[in-house]
């Protein structure tokens, strides 16, 4: 058995928690505990304690903050220990000493030092669901929490209260109560079966519709006509099919890099520069729209930050698109050099991002300029919005789900504005390129979704950075 965890629910009003570390992680752990029980007894020990933790202690008298280094005596009168420092040796020492006293330990981001995990929690009144991936993928646990939070109605609490009242009023023995309650809740299983049936009917209808359309078209377009059409499809379509497939695999494994992977790959094949950015943004507009809407639905979008990024981003994207069209048509060699240098810088930035350590949260200044720069360089280079904007906001200690959600939705407006600009200036001359990218990316999407979370984030980002740097250097060597 791969997962031997035994889930339990603790009555936190009877426990005393010790958190060692007063940074972002310590704040997150304390906030999580207080969210589940505002009266939980928590002691935080750290040489430096974040201001947010201090503000939290002002509204929670049961949250005790002590600014000092850890000492063995701190383990006294503690039932559970949560380690939130980035000092691995200190963490090991604390765990050894705590376990010697019979105290269980959780060490953030260090599964080997954990006696228990703090899972993602779904709260719906009396209903509480804890989700764990056995320490393998906290991101997946968070996504599942978001999913269940969205699909489970708030009215479930009323249903639970009603079932509780029926159970208390029932005069039968245990088996009779169980049978009657099973009967009352059997509709949940029926809904699942109905859903499967509806899906089966939909799939059968879809197949029939496809056959019907195919038969109807066969009476209009002969096999010879179809064969002739396929033979006239340009080679660039098949090249873009492979590029789109590969770029989507990269983006699925890493969570960024679609645009910059496409642009560097397409430069290798000598695709016209304006067509590179125009086709990438047209193809990416669909995925960013769906992604942004999903994040908005799950509450991962900060509206104020969205407006601050999107409006300057749109302006930058339009200007970047126009500049690329001008340079790409009249100064192709210079444009290739500028673009290859830009992607080289993005590759180096990805390496910095891969090795970036967790830092204290800082206020982001000049958000509008960040959005403008990201939109301008993204449109000019065919990619880079994510590596520029997302990495900058994350480097300031912003909450990851809010950053990713807001930047994804803002990206839709940026790609839309760039696509419209390229369409007006270039027309649809790059239609086969767009079609290849969309079909290739769509084909790779199921595989990419399976890769997500299975490749270590740092290794995946470094792999993308390596490819981008190699491609960029190769292009620069050809020019000079």
Task: Walk me through what this model shows.
66% of the residues lie in helices and 8% in strands. Helix 11 runs antiparallel to helix 16 (400-426) and helix 14 packs antiparallel against helix 15 (385-395). A hairpin with a 2-residue loop joins strand 6 and strand 7 (127-131). It contains 18 helices and seven strands. By secondary structure, it is α/β, with parallel strands linked by helices. It has a five-stranded parallel β-sheet, sandwiched between helices. The chain has a two-stranded antiparallel sheet with strand order 6-7. It has helices at 24-36, 51-59, 88-100, 138-151, 156-169, 174-184, 187-218, 223-231, 235-254, 258-268, 273-297, 303-330, 332-354, 367-381, 385-395, 400-426, 431-451, 457-479; strands spanning 16-22, 41-49, 63-67, 80-83, 104-107, 120-124, 127-131. It has two domains: 12-118, NAD(P)-binding Rossmann-like Domain (Rossmann fold, 3-Layer(aba) Sandwich); 235-479, no CATH class. It is globular.
